[in-house]
Amino acid sequence: MLKSMTGFGKATKSSNNKTVIVEIRSLNSKLLDLSIKSPVLFREKESEIKNIISKKLIRGKVDLQITIEYTGEEAPTEINKNLVKNYYKQLSEIAKDLNISISESSLQAIIRMPDVISTPNLELKKEDVDLLYSCLDEALMKIDEFRAQEGSITEKDLKTNILNIEQLLKEVEEPEKLRVEKVKNRIRTNIEELIDKSKIDENRFEQELIFYIEKFDVSEEKVRLANHCKYFLETLQSKDAQGKKLGFISQEIGREINTLGSKANDAVIQKIVIQMKDNLEKIKEQTLNIL
Prior knowledge:
This protein has 291 residues and is α+β, with helices and mostly antiparallel strands. Helices cover 61% and strands 14% of the residues. A four-stranded mixed beta sheet has the order 1-2-4-3, covered by helices on one side.
């Protein structure tokens, strides 16, 4: 199944006095580019979290945010009451010296003073780790589902564009046959304008004509292009991550289309080639976001 690198997953789990929230966002990237924002309590687990995510998401620009909300009476912060009283006392003395009043709102300013609020060293317990990993697993499952849904849409578009190229390749057949005749007639007409028809060596003329037309032969390009398109569709159905592989195949498709256009020497075929390139550009854009 085709998967996109774009995705989002969120999970929330609660236990005792804690609620853990895990949010994962991902965008396309050549490699795994992981950014983690986690509270102090879970910092020591970041290395393990990276290993879990790298195995599940493989690649992409991934942003992981872990949040803890304390739902019980116990809070993870402490207010230094003595320091608050000391600040208030000093502010009151300053206000008295300046002959101004001090209001209760001054307490808000005191709370923001250095070292008034501190976070004690919290001990990471087994139940905290279990809660985190349970939440992480659910978020990863959701982002994987999101990626699969996006991938399904992308797969349909890729198939449509590849089938369009295959159909356009079939449309080259008729103008290609006419093109050879046009080239023959044009060369003969140009020669007859310069040399008396009776003086033309027909055998030599045919040999030179065959040699000249071979330069414009696109049979090999058509065969290779058809094979590349077939291989592209087969790769779409593979189970492994195939974004890079599809990108390589699309490059080969582009080479054959470009060669076909340069050899065409025909306005009708050139128009068909332009349509092929239009479909190929859409394919290239879409493969950049495939896992």
